[in-house]
Specification:
Distance between the termini: 39 Å
Structural class: alpha+beta
Radius of gyration: 24 Å
Helix content: 25-40%
Mean pLDDT: 95
Number of helices: 20
């Protein structure tokens, strides 16, 4: 579509009010500039010109490929928001470099992880999803997406992960080589020292005191028992963690529009709904190859891989459920599809008990019953509410006691629990609650606070990266004995983190780190450059969300350049704008434009700003990665039949 055709086909609004940029708008521009420079320095320090990483000459075990992807994935997301043009090519080159390099190490086969679990697949393939948003889609993007999805829909004979008849993924360990029913001692070798401090997977491992809360994986005899018992009880059949695979298939659908992929996501989530129903409303964490609950686990519905007992409990139950339910709700436009995640939050809350004046919920289930009681985390119902805007999801958030100031902004650490607020962090995502308070009008200072916190964190990360421990040429095979863990090193050093930019510009919480798509109420395209993201010098702030509207403020911080952008309804174009209202400084409507489409063109002359209240029909469109100028080229390469 030509620029003139585009402009004639969508509604347009021009800002006329001259404004002095508010502080948050200048902070956003400072953050973009700082991130662009930090990204360049990070890439120069840790990668070679061909996109491969400066690292060891070998890496054993099945763990590994997700972590380098995680370390560099935000290059693509930053570009999608409005980062520098060069980030696009760099992000693609590094994705290909990592894929080639970890193929040589032995973890990746046919461009996809040979076998691992969907906590780690989910983390690593966020990079793939962000590249989808960074469009325009290439032939390679579309081909990869459909090839990878076929590994989980039962259509790839080399990767028979899915049983179409029983609607189950056949092992918790899966990938391009198919289900991994039998693991060996080499598979878990990189984890042995780390897992010494974790709870034992079973309560009857010879030589292990389960009550101690630790299990000596480093002990050779214990390790042999562990491998044998995991092969016997844990590595066959389906687990809720596999629901993160719906993200990969949804990604392929948004590249292709193939109805079979949408149907698979609906079918697979429904299969787990039925298993939960069979188990009295609590989702089981293991079903066998014949779809029997506890088939290899003495009939126990607890005790599966990344399940109710080991290693994290409720977190690795509710996260894939939340991801999958949000995927199917977006694909169908049916918000009742959030029900499975809602039910598990409700069942968990019903099991609460009062202890030391606090209401706690169980995170684990042992043979003796529910245990590991902790404070409930509001972030999961916040994700559901941000999609549904339903009172019932708001109630699920507000029933959780506020044990600390929910308005407080933190500078997250790499991983773990913040000592002041108790909030868990992963990928430096730690401010979902204060964003929730802000978007409901209860935390007006949040934009400036979160942008300041993001800037502080970038500085901290740059200092770490520039220190001697951040020099990749100093690393050795024994580096994980020091301050940092070897395989996580790029995430720990990366300065390209920007939770605030995502929340404030897109109007949604930052993705769930274990495989969640980056949902949000709006996204932007630079009309002049024909690329994703805010134009240079333009800042955006989503101020309010309702069930049928989004209010966004746009500011052109330049006094010299007119900027033109396109706002899209929904990160994946799943919504439809109905009307655009210009809101004056006193809250009055000063102008109205009919939109009736998923895109709105906005012209911002130099030094101007505008606040728009955009009416919405939510989930009115089929989600896709399409950009306004895409020519809908869906060509694929057809390989040999034999």
């Amino acid at each position: 579509m030509t620029n003139s055709q585009l402009k004639s086909s969508i509604a347009s609004i021009t800002a006329s009010e001259r404004v002095v940029p508010p502080h948050w708008a200048l902070q956003e521009q400072l953050l973009f500039d700082t991130l662009n420079k930090a990204a360049k320095e990070f890439v120069t320090r840790y990668t070679r010109p061909d996109g491969t990483l400066i690292w060891f000459d070998h890496w054993p075990g099945m763990d590994g490929s997700d972590d380098p992807y995680e370390g560099f994935m935000n290059l693509a997301l930053l570009y999608m928001l409005g980062g520098s043009n060069e980030l696009h090519e760099i992000a693609r080159r590094i994705f290909d470099g990592i894929t080639w390099q970890w193929t040589q190490y032995g973890q990746i086969h046919r461009e996809f992880d040979a076998y691992y679990d969907w906590m780690h697949h989910g983390e690593g393939y966020l990079y793939l999803y962000f590249l989808g948003l960074a469009g325009p889609a290439t032939l390679k993007d579309r081909q990869r997406a459909l090839t990878f999805a076929s590994m989980y829909t039962g259509d790839d004979p080399e990767a028979p992960n899915y049983d179409k008849e029983r609607k189950l993924i056949r092992s918790p360990l899966n990938g391009s080589r198919g289900p991994r029913f039998i693991v060996n001692e080499e598979d878990w070798s990189t984890h042995r020292g780390i897992l010494d401090d974790y709870l034992a997977p079973y309560e009857d491992i010879p030589g292990v005191d389960f009550a101690s809360g630790k299990c000596s994986w480093s002990n050779d005899e214990v390790y042999k028992h562990l491998i044998s018992m995991m092969n016997e009880r844990m590595n066959r059949g389906d687990v809720p963690l596999n629901l993160n695979a719906t993200g990969l298939v949804t990604h392929a659908f948004m590249h292709s529009g193939d109805e079979n992929l949408r149907n698979w996501v609906v079918e697979y989530v429904q299969a787990w709904q039925e298993r939960s129903n069979r188990n009295g409303g609590i989702i089981p964490d293991n079903v066998g190859l014949t779809d029997q609950i506890g088939e290899y686990n003495d009939g126990k519905w607890w005790g599966g891989y990344y399940g109710w007992r080991w290693p994290h409990g409720f977190m690795t139950i509710i996260e894939p459920l939340t991801n999958a339910c949000m995927n199917v709700a977006m694909l169908t436009g049916d918000l009742t599809r959030l029900q499975l995640a809602r039910e598990q939050l409700d069942r968990n809350w019903e099991l609460r008990k009062e202890q030391d004046g606090k209401w706690l919920v169980p995170y684990k289930h042992f043979d003796s019953g529910w245990t590991d009681y902790r404070e409930a985390l509001p972030k999961y119902p916040i994700y559901l509410w941000s999609m549904s805007m339903a009172d019932e999801d708001l109630d699920r958030i507000e029933r959780i006691p506020k044990d600390h100031d929910w308005n407080e902004v933190i500078v997250p650490r790499f991983s773990g629990r913040d000592p002041k607020t108790g909030r868990e962090t992963k990928h430096y995502i730690g401010n979902t609650q204060p964003w929730f308070q802000y978007i409901r009008g209860l935390n007006p200072d949040y934009p400036e606070q979160i942008l300041r916190a993001n800037y502080e964190m970038i500085g901290n990360q740059l200092a770490k990266m520039r220190a001697p421990d951040g020099n990749p040429h100093n690393w050795t095979e024994h580096y994980n004995e020091g301050m940092y863990s070897a395989i996580h090193i790029w995430q720990e050093m990366c300065p390209v983190y920007f939770e605030g930019l995502v929340q404030l510009t897109l109007g949604g919480p930052m993705h769930i780190s274990h495989g969640g798509l980056q949902h949000g109420r709006v996204r932007y395209f630079d009309d002049a450059e024909k690329r994703p993201g805010l134009p240079q010098g333009v800042s955006a702030l989503v101020e309010k969300l309702t069930a049928d509207s989004v209010t966004v403020q746009l500011v052109n911080t330049s006094l010299f350049d007119t900027r033109e952008l396109i706002i899209q309804a929904g990160v994946f174009g799943e919504h439809q704008f109905t009307i655009g209202e210009i809101i004056g400084s006193n809250g009055e409507v000063t102008g109205t434009t009919a939109v009736n489409g998923k895109w709105l063109h906005v012209e911002l002359p130099e030094g101007t700003g505008i606040t728009l209240r955009l009416g919405l029909k939510r989930f009115a469109n089929t989600p896709s990665y399409a950009m306004p100028w895409d020519e809908n080229d869906k060509q694929l390469i057809q390989g040999r039949a034999n």
